[in-house]
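In response to reviewer comment 3 from the previous cycle, which asked for concrete evidence that the modeling workflow produces usable outputs, we include below a single protein chain processed end to end. The sequence was submitted unchanged, and the resulting structure tokens are shown without manual editing.
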Amino acid sequence: MITRRRIAVIGAAVVILSAAAAADRQPGDVFRDCPECPEMVVIGAGSFVMGSDGRHRHERPAHPAAIVNPFAMGRYEVTFDEWAACHEAGGCARMPDDHKWGRGRRPVINLTWPEMQTYVRWLSERTGAVYRLPSETEWEYAARAGSDTAFWWGDEVGDNRANCRDCGSEWSKKGSAPVGSFEPNPFGLHDMHGNVWEWTEDCWNPTHHGAPADGSPRLNGDCNKRVMRSGSWYYFSKNSRSAWRFYNDVRVKSYNIGFRVVRDLP
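The workflow returned the following structure tokens.
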């Protein structure tokens, strides 16, 4: 049974409200499919300009992209607590090292891309819904949240708005922050800029030439490498911009890399 919630913004606070169980999820609605499942935020369909024609060739060309179907995305990066539920249930084989930063509500780290796939498979089996990693297009659409600037709040990184090397937070250059330590973007998503790199489903291609226009993952190219987004606590803010993209080998595990999940909607 799905527990549905709706969020409302009152002043600067986000309040989670109870909502009747119905099939009319609206953008911004928050729900959780099981007590140990991640909180998910409904993201509406829409279109945007993906990428950038700036000096970073990996971001080129800027191009129109569409999200044809609404989807739900993790409100936060997957946490150690959420991973532990999978591990204890036998769905995730290994409990990764926390680099002595603590577990709980910190983003889970030190996992390979295939290990993260075991988590989304477990969620899918546990709930009967389809969970997966986001496509690169879905990720950027969700990170931008209607903006066309470097970050959802503007072109300057500012001070203490995220966790990156020059973001001016208490965790900058030191390690990950507990999820939700910074205000959410207009879609209700936290930590889309910085904290830890987030794996996507897409195989690596050095530019956006030939990228799908419908929001689906790009599954051609070098699939031993997968696209990462968001930057991290260790990297400078330029790597945390909405358009920034890079890759890593799927076998790599690092204290810089985590993930967040997507759920398909009916």
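Residues 125 and 131 are 9 Å apart (CA to CA). We consider this sufficient to address the reviewer's concern, and the full set will be provided in the supplementary archive.
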